């Protein structure tokens, strides 16, 4: 995973349009909605193995042309929406490429078992003493 925002920005395509939502007259005049498109297949940032992994895991995020599509229209500024969109893409790609550590199976130690059984025994004695057997 050797990519950053600056490297990604060179490989993405931005499309802008008028946004919906808050903004009043600004919404009607200014194209603040940003649609970011990223082509995994032609990217120079990833090797072939990573491209296959990204394409497989991001299948639901790809459009008809096979581009990853991220839409952002949360801010009233086009620049801020572009920054948010690139942040979303960065976190999406890094999360997809992240490989979790393989869990090493372990056993409960003999001392931990003994401690647990001793606690159970003490609790049992405590409850027996509470009984008022007549």
SSE diagram, text form:
Elements: H1 5-11, E1 12-17, H2 25-29, E2 33-39, H3 48-57, E3 67-72, H4 78-97, H5 110-130
Antiparallel strand pairs: 1-2, 2-3
Can you offer a commentary on this structure?
With 134 residues, this protein is an alpha+beta fold. Helix content is 47%, strand content 14%. It is elongated. The mean pLDDT is 87.
Task: Give the biggest sheet.
Answer: 3 strands, antiparallel
The main sheet orders its strands as 1-2-3
Fraction of residues in helix = 40-55%
Radius of gyration, whole Å: 27 Å
Low-confidence stretches: none
How would you sum up the global shape?
A: elongated
Number of helices: 5
The helix/strand order is: HEHEHEHH
Number of strands: 3
Mean pLDDT: 87
Supply the helix-strand structural class: alpha+beta
- Span of the ends, CA to CA: 72 Å
**Residue fraction in strands:** 5-15%
Key terms for this structure?
single chain, 134 residues, alpha+beta, 5 helices, 3 strands
